[in-house]
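pasting for ref
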Amino acid sequence: MSRLYLPLLLAVLTSFPALSQAKQSSLPIVDAERKEGFADQAAAIRQQMKTGGRFEYVTTQERSEVERQLDIITALLEKRAGERLSDNDQLDLLAAQETANAILTQRDGHRLICEFSAPTGSNRKVKQCATYADRARAHKETRNYMRENMGKNPLNVAN
């Protein structure tokens, strides 16, 4: 009887790390609940938007928008300073937080992207997963390779 429960128990125990990882990845990046920790959080986000950071693939326009939203949040948190925000200010705070989170989540280098595709010569689809940073890096390398080699004609090399 215990042999029947062992595979079920193993399946349940091994699923918990996957559940905790999924829960962590759904956490908001920008969290403007408290004024005390937000300055450090904003500085960390700005640092991660630089080359080599988690959000390095944020475009220039998106970067300026995130900066603007962080400034709005900072101003609203300064305004709150001990008193409750008005309903309009509370809505502005939530809108700024959601806008920044949407941009950063979309360009998050740690975001895992999975797709099903059939390898050449096969009809059987295979699941392939890669992080956003890996895909962006591969795209950039391919573009550079094509740019360097498109102008070269093999027939002209011999001449």
